[in-house]
TrEMBL record:
Belongs to the glycosyl hydrolase 1 family. One of its GO terms (molecular function) is beta-glucosidase activity. Pfam families: Glyco_hydro_1. The keyword Hydrolase applies. Gene3D superfamilies: Glycosidases. The active site is at residue 390. GO terms for cellular component: cytosol. PROSITE patterns: GLYCOSYL_HYDROL_F1_1 (PS00572). One of its GO terms (biological process) is carbohydrate catabolic process. The lineage of its organism: Bacteria, Bacillati, Bacillota, Bacilli, Lactobacillales. Coiled coil: none annotated. This is 6-phospho-beta-glucosidase.
Length: 496
C-alpha cells in the first residue's frame, strides 16, 4: 500500500507561468507599463537583475519592490537604459505563440493551466474608467484555446506586479486607494471570464511582500510593508466575496511561497528561532485562511519596529470583510528547504544551506520530503484543501542541434517530489486539488532574469539577451511527465 502513487480521480495536472516572465508583447494591444517592465536581466556573475535607472542616472533596486529609497520625488519616473536588455518586454513571446504552447501542454495531458493576467494589459494605468478591450480579447483567446483541449484555467489575478502608474502615484499597496482599483479590475475579469473559469488566485506569493514582492512600495520595509500586506488582505477578501456572488461554484485562494525551514540543530534556541521564522510566513496564511489576524501578529510587527496592529491603518469594516472573505483552499510554491539558527535575522528569507542536502547550481537545496512535510503543516494548521501551484527545478539544459534535451536531472527531481506529494495525499490523507509545475515551457527566471536557468518540459531556443528562433522542442521530461499524467501518478511507483 505504501508504494501506491495513484492519485484521486479528478486530480488536476498542469503547469504555471507568470505574464512578465512568459507573455511578452509589452507594448502591443494597448498594454500599459508595469513595474516589472523596468527590470534588467542578470546572472550569477552579474546580479544586476531587479534594478532600474532614474532620470538622474541613479540605479535603484530591487525594481519589483519598486524603489527602495526615501529621496525619490513622486513625479520622478524610471527610464529605460540604452543598450540594456529587459526580459519582460519579449519574455518567450507567448503573446504570439499561445496556440502552439497550449497545444504542447495539451499533448502532455494537462487538464489545468495556471497563468496570470497582466493588470496593465486590462487597465494600462490602473485608473481608466473602462478596460482595454484588446487586452480582454487576448485572454479570451487564450481561455477559448484551452477549452478546445478541456483544460481548466487557474487564473492569478495579480502576479508580483501592477501598472507602473499605481506604484508612482500611490506608493503601491501602501495606499488603501489600491483596494478599490484592484476590486474594479477583478470584477471586470469575473464579468468577462467567469463563465469559463472557476479557480482563481488573488495574489502570487503574497508573503514575499517582505522581499521583492508585488507591493510596488518605495520603501519596502517597516510600516509600509505591513500596511501594504493589510491592504492586500482586504482587497483579496473583498474579491473573494464578490467572486462567490458573481461566479457560482468558484474557488479562491492566494498563493504563498512556502519553501520551508528547519532548525539548524536540536538546540532549544535554534528550534524556537525556527518557529519565529516560520511565523513570518504563517502570519499571511493564518490571516487569510482563517479570516482574522493570529495571536502572534503584534509580536511579528514589534520585531519590525511597529508598535503592533494598532499602527496599521484599518477601516471599521475590515475585520468583518477578512472573516467573510476567507480563502477556499491554500495554494503555495515549494522549491527547496533551508535551515535557520539562533542569532539569524528573522528576515533572512533564504535561510542557510542544509549540509544534508544536494543543491542546484543556484544553491537551492533539493528536499522532496520537505514538500510532504509542508503539505502536512498547511493542512494541520488550516484544515482546507491545498493546491501545489509551483514546484520545479531550474537547471542549465544542454540542447542538441535539434533543440532536444536529455534532462534526467529534472526527471529525477520530479520523480522524487511527485512521489512525496502522492505519499502526503495517500498516506497522510492531505486533500490536494492538483499540481502545476513551474514553467512547463522555458521562461525567464524571476530571481536572476536569465534564460539559462531553465525549468520547462519544452526547450525554447532563446538566450539570456533574447537571441534565438523561439522554436519550441519537447525535452525528455515532456514524455516522462506525459506517462505520469496518463497514469494519474501510478507510474511513479515503477521507479521507487
Amino acid at each position: 500500500m505504501e508504494n501506491n502513487k495513484k492519485l484521486p480521480e479528478g486530480f488536476l495536472w498542469g503547469g504555471a507561468t507568470a505574464d512578465f516572465q512568459y507573455e511578452g508583447g509589452y507594448d502591443e494591444g494597448g498594454r500599459g507599463l508595469s513595474t516589472h517592465d523596468y527590470e534588467t536581466n542578470g546572472s550569477v556573475e552579474n546580479p544586476r537583475h531587479h534594478t532600474m535607472e532614474m532620470p538622474d542616472g541613479t540605479i535603484i533596486g530591487p525594481a519589483s519592490s519598486f524603489i527602495d529609497a526615501e529621496t525619490v520625488p513622486d513625479e520622478a519616473k524610471p527610464v529605460f537604459i540604452d543598450g540594456q536588455y529587459y526580459p519582460s518586454h519579449k519574455a518567450v513571446d507567448f503573446y504570439h505563440h499561445y496556440k502552439e504552447d497550449i497545444k504542447l501542454m495539451a499533448g502532455m495531458g494537462f487538464n489545468v493551466y495556471r497563468f496570470s493576467i497582466s493588470w496593465s494589459r486590462i487597465f494600462p494605468t490602473g485608473e481608466e474608467e473602462t478596460p482595454n478591450e484588446a487586452g480582454l480579447k487576448f485572454y479570451d483567446d487564450v481561455i477559448n484555446e484551452m477549452a478546445k483541449y478541456k483544460m481548466e484555467p487557474l487564473i492569478t489575478i495579480c502576479h508580483d506586479e501592477m501598472p507602473m502608474n499605481l506604484a508612482l502615484k500611490y506608493n503601491g499597496w501602501a495606499s488603501r486607494e489600491l483596494i478599490d482599483l484592484y476590486v474594479k479590475y477583478a470584477k471586470v475579469l469575473f464579468e468577462r471570464y467567469g463563465d469559463r473559469c472557476r479557480y482563481w488566485l488573488t495574489f502570487n506569493e503574497i508573503n514575499a511582500v517582505r522581499g521583492f514582492g508585488p507591493t510596488g512600495v518605495r520603501k519596502n520595509q517597516g510600516i509600509d510593508r505591513y500596511q501594504a500586506a493589510h491592504n492586500m488582505f482586504v482587497a483579496s477578501a473583498k474579491t473573494v466575496i464578490m467572486g462567490h456572488e458573481m461566479i457560482p461554484n468558484s474557488k479562491f485562494s492566494t498563493m504563498y511561497a512556502l519553501s520551508t525551514f528547519y532548525p539548524a540543530t536540536c538546540k532549544p534556541q535554534d528550534v524556537f528561532h525556527n518557529m519565529q521564522q516560520l511565523r513570518e510566513n504563517w502570519y499571511f496564511v493564518d490571516t487569510m485562511g482563517r479570516g482574522y489576524y493570529p495571536s502572534y501578529a503584534d509580536d511579528i510587527l514589534l520585531h519590525h519596529g511597529i508598535e503592533g496592529l494598532s499602527e496599521i491603518e484599518m477601516a471599521t469594516e475590515d475585520e468583518e470583510i477578512l472573516n467573510k472573505g476567507q480563502l477556499d483552499f491554500i495554494s503555495f510554491s515549494y522549491y527547496r528547504s533551508n535551515i535557520t539558527k539562533d542569532g539569524d535575522d528573522w528576515f533572512n528569507v533564504g535561510g542557510s544551506s542544509n549540509p544534508y542536502l544536494k543543491e542546484t547550481p543556484w544553491g537551492w537545496g533539493l528536499d522532496p520530503l520537505g514538500l510532504r512535510y509542508t503539505m502536512n503543516m498547511i493542512y494541520d494548521r488550516i484544515q482546507k484543501p491545498i493546491f501545489i501551484v509551483e514546484n520545479g527545478i531550474g537547471i542549465i539544459d544542454q540542447a542538441d542541434e535539434n533543440g532536444y534535451v536529455e534532462d534526467d536531472e529534472r526527471i529525477n527531481y520530479l520523480q522524487d517530489h511527485l512521489s512525496a506529494m502522492a505519499d502526503a495525499i495517500n498516506q497522510d490523507h492531505v486533500p490536494c486539488l492538483g499540481y502545476t509545475m513551474w514553467g512547463p515551457i522555458d521562461l525567464v527566471s524571476l530571481s536572476t532574469g536569465e534564460m539559462k536557468k531553465r525549468y520547462g518540459f519544452v526547450y525554447v531556443d532563446m538566450d539570456d539577451l533574447g537571441n534565438g528562433t523561439l522554436k519550441r522542442t519537447p525535452k525528455k521530461s515532456y514524455y516522462w511527465m506525459k506517462k505520469v499524467i496518463e497514469s494519474n501518478g501510478e507510474s511513479l511507483a515503477d521507479h521507487e
